[in-house]
């Protein structure tokens, strides 16, 4: 159930860091769209993790058309030890807007195994897929990303965390 446990390392991302990295992603994507002007037609966020980065990218690139695709991924096992991740679309973006994805910027917070993006790319083969963070296994599924972490690293996002008291290192109790 808890995917975090087998991971050796933790990569903790603050709101401030996420804002900087999403801005860096926007700057990298600026002018990279199809056509002479290099403009993007729309931003599509993969919910839910892609929504905050997508908002920041849309703001930086002055893109007002923003849609969402909801993808649920789950583990399926055929009774064997090797569990396979499967993904399913729960909600699609506007079909007339999307076409095959040309000029559309699809944004997610990270790519891990690549299963989520594999499905999204199969639906919109002409879209440009970008994430803020990437792990090696999923890297071939993204055109643009900002920071790569190792496969055995779990990325902790600010919306999954809270500030809490920590005992002094040399305190009595
Ligand atoms: O490359 P993959 O192995 O498919 O994993 C990456 C996906 O997993 C997480 O989303 P999750 O499905 O946990 O849902 P959430 O965004 O709603 O938290 C993350 O936000 C990516 O969308
Ligand atoms: O490293 C991760 N962090 C948060 N959510 C995730 N979903 C897949 N991998 C990760
Ligand atoms: Mg997600």
TrEMBL record:
Membrane topology designation: Peripheral membrane protein
Cofactor(s) named in the record: Mg(2+)
Residue positions binding GMP: 85, 112-116, 154-155
InterPro entries linked: PRTase-like (IPR029057), PRTase_dom (IPR000836), Xanthine_Guanine_PRibTrfase (IPR023747)
Binding site for xanthine: 112, 155
Binding sites annotated in the UniProt record for 5-phospho-alpha-D-ribose 1-diphosphate: 48-49, 85, 108-116
Residues annotated as binding Mg(2+): 109
Keyword Ribonucleoprotein: no
Catalytic function, reaction form: IMP + diphosphate = hypoxanthine + 5-phospho-alpha-D-ribose 1-diphosphate; GMP + diphosphate = guanine + 5-phospho-alpha-D-ribose 1-diphosphate; XMP + diphosphate = xanthine + 5-phospho-alpha-D-ribose 1-diphosphate
HAMAP family reported for this sequence: XGPRT
Record family assignment: Belongs to the purine/pyrimidine phosphoribosyltransferase family. XGPT subfamily.
Primary role: Purine salvage pathway enzyme that catalyzes the transfer of the ribosyl-5-phosphate group from 5-phospho-alpha-D-ribose 1-diphosphate (PRPP) to the N9 position of the 6-oxopurines guanine and xanthine to form the corresponding ribonucleotides GMP (guanosine 5'-monophosphate) and XMP (xanthosine 5'-monophosphate), with the release of PPi. To a lesser extent, also acts on hypoxanthine.
Protein's UniProt name: Xanthine-guanine phosphoribosyltransferase
């Amino acid at each position: 159930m808890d995917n975090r446990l087998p991971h050796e390392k933790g990569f903790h991302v603050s709101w401030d860091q996420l804002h900087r990295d999403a801005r860096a992603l926007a700057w990298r994507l600026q002018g990279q769209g199809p056509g002479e002007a290099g403009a993007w037609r729309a931003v599509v966020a993969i919910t839910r993790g892609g929504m905050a980065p997508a908002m920041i990218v849309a703001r930086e690139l002055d893109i007002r058309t923003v849609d969402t695709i909801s993808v649920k991924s789950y583990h399926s096992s055929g009774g064997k030890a090797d569990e396979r991740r499967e993904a399913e679309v729960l909600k699609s973006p506007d079909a007339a807007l999307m076409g095959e994805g040309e000029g559309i910027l699809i944004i997610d917070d990270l790519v891990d195994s690549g299963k989520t993006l594999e499905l999204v790319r199969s639906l919109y083969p002409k879209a440009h897929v970008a994430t803020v963070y990437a792990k090696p296994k999923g890297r071939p599924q993204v055109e643009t990303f900002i920071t790569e972490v190792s496969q055995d690293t779990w990325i902790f996002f600010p919306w999954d965390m809270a500030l809490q008291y920590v005992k002094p290192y040399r305190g009595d109790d």
